[in-house]
Amino acid sequence: LSFAIVVPLSLIVLCIIPLSMPKSLMSIFCLLGVTLASACPFYFSGIAISAILTRSSQAIGKIYAADLLGASIGCLFALGGLEYFDAPSLILLCGSLGIIASVFFSYDNPIFKFRWTSHVFLSVLTLAAFLNASSPYGIRPVVVKGQVESPTDYLIEKWNSYSRVVVYKSQGPTSPQFWGPSPLAPKDQKLNQFYMNIDGEAGTVLRQFNNLNDIDHLRYDVTNAVYHLRSMGGVCIIGVGGGRDLQSAILFGHRKITGIDVNPIFIDLLQNQFQSFAGLGNRKDVKFIADEARSVLSRTQTTYSVIQMSLIDTWAATGAGAFSLSENALYTVEAWQIFFDHLADDGVFTVSRWYNSDDLGETGRVVSLATAVLLKLGITQPWQHIAMITSGSVSTLLLSKMPFSQQDIATIQGLCDTYLFSLPILPGSSPQHPFLRAVVSSTSSEMLHRTIDNEALNYEPPTDENPYFFNMLRLSQTATLLLSKPLPDRGVLRGNMVANLTLIGLIFCLLVVSTGTIILPLIFQLRKQQEVLKRSPIFWAGAVYFSLIGSGFMFVEIALIQKLSVFLGHPIYALGILLFTIIASAGIGSFLSEHIPLNRSRWVFIYPIVIAVAILTISAILPILMSEMVSASMQNKILASILIILPLGLFLGICFPLGMRLTQSEKDTSAPWFWALNGTFGVLCSSLAVFNAIHFGIVANFYIAAFCYSALVICFPFLMQNPFKQQGVPA
């Protein structure tokens, strides 16, 4: 019941505390406040779960199995609930579930007044959740990515498990929005537009389209340079957003256009609320697909004259330490090979990113990635297939399947002369910029890597093993830039600093909270409890055991989420499939653990090694699976993921209840500490696993997880000496 009461209070605190880069003392205190507010509800639920685990007469394996099965259902509930509720309202509804749990928790308790309190509060909190979801003036974040937002400015606000999308009220006809406008772009035209915001940072625009005159200004944007080269054939737009790129393809005469977006909110807006305004939802020459582009293209044999990917990011990937892999997965060697394979013989793949001639940043990595793809496909003269056009702060890469013809080169030069665009890379010519010249001149992967290794930023072509395209800050630079004043304000470099500082700050806050709530109380408690000190070798072996399984589970879970995010196309698929499967299967493993005979020591010494081998086997199988099933249907990919995760989950589920049975004491004072250590190390290692994957690759997390589980064998010689351990079911 306390959990349910604290949930809305914590939610309000989370909505009003402003967060910024943890550089100042105040920003660190704000991050610490958010950490504590997030943890408070689980303090009370932790009391309840710990009490059940340590004081129930039921078998520990069955109790923990019920806990895990409930958690797996909760994963699906959260993902499904975000399709119908905004995040604050769903959080309130989760508080209602806590009240229902309190009724069952006190079912045999004669204190009826708390039961009536539960019924009343359940009604109030459930009603509050539904009212909050139906009103734009309910509980909402006050400060979003450093900016104060008022719901009165919203025309539409939509949440789902992918993101939060806001459409702002129109301010009347305004000047057309451009990404990389030509100096000759019309400045006096006025157009009705709706500005959209994704996750509080990334922006896009819904523009009115009744006739071609409404969108004629789009020909002046450098992101649409490809259409001056290819005005015939099919077009595939990756990232629909507000429909701008679809309108561009229509403007230049294409009559077969496919728009793919992983977030169904954008497609829903274009097909419903803004169907007539944007002029796209009811066109027969436009096809919408709500899915991830890699998955869609890998399942079709269709080829396109143009595949366009313009500024596809939400800044969530950069600003949150690249936790989100939805955009990163589009910027890997493997992804671009898929896109390249689906070009027609004269097709062009075009990618637009942010540009600064003095600090190439993302543009440099895009060119490196394009060169790596060409070299991997056996093309030893990449400079004949790559062109780059820039205007202002935007660059557009043109990657041709066939070498650009002399006519293409003349068209590109004429385009730049006509619209006053810059031309850093012209096919067949040597770029003036020394880094770009060295990259496109590479004739082998080894030569490319030698060029990249000498650069301050990480221009290494991202792969599915290390897909963090947006993180270009090398680990060796982090400490130097961390101490610099002021912090760099250059595009991606600043974003990377926000990412790394946020992640480091979060790890610091978790360490502070863990020390204050677990480590220090544990030290004082041990001094008071003589019976624990008498069993100190067993206690400390148990402490190490539960810390290791908490760490190992989180490292392997994060690694699987990151791998399956790329395989299935989006983190949401990975979360839904992975978390449900691994937690549910762990629950089954926990239930089966009751049948493991602890009186035969070989069992307890063998199973950690089996788990470690299983983790390493999965890390070796997944790249092969991803390569072989790249064109498989989503159903088959999901089935394959479940079949891989299920056996591992069964093994992992055995660890916790088995450890509890091995460490139990006569007075049972140690179990709550073991439960706390297990949870604390799991939470802490979630952040460490992300940081580790960004800088050392996803596979490193598999290795660490395997080490954690194999290290359990060190604990068993001490735990097997416990005279109070349950002997288990004989073989």
Describe the structure.
It is a single chain. The chain is α/β, with parallel strands linked by helices and 731 residues long. Helices cover 56% and strands 11% of the residues. An 8-stranded mixed beta sheet has the order 9-8-7-10-11-13-12-14, with helices on both faces. A 4-stranded antiparallel beta sheet has the order 3-4-5-6, with no helix packed on it. Helix 21 (536-568) packs antiparallel against helix 26. It is globular and about 85 Å long. The two termini are 43 Å apart.
Measured distance between first and last alpha carbons: 43 Å
Strand content: 5-15%
Which radius of gyration do the C-alpha atoms yield?
28 Å
Class by SSE composition = alpha/beta
Instruction: Describe the sheet with the most strands.
Output: 8 strands, mixed
Coarse morphology: globular
Topology:
Blueprint: H1 2-16, H2 25-55, H3 60-81, H4 87-105, H5 112-134, E1 143-144, E2 147-148, E3 154-159, E4 164-168, E5 193-198, E6 202-207, H6 212-215, H7 226-229, E7 235-238, H8 244-251, E8 257-261, H9 264-271, H10 275-278, E9 286-290, H11 293-298, E10 304-310, H12 316-319, H13 333-341, E11 343-354, H14 362-376, E12 386-391, E13 394-400, H15 406-419, E14 422-425, H16 434-440, H17 445-453, H18 475-482, H19 491-528, H20 530-534, H21 536-568, H22 571-592, H23 601-628, H24 634-663, H25 671-696, H26 698-710, H27 716-719
Parallel strand pairs: 7-8, 7-10, 8-9, 10-11
Antiparallel strand pairs: 1-2, 3-4, 4-5, 5-6, 11-13, 12-13, 12-14
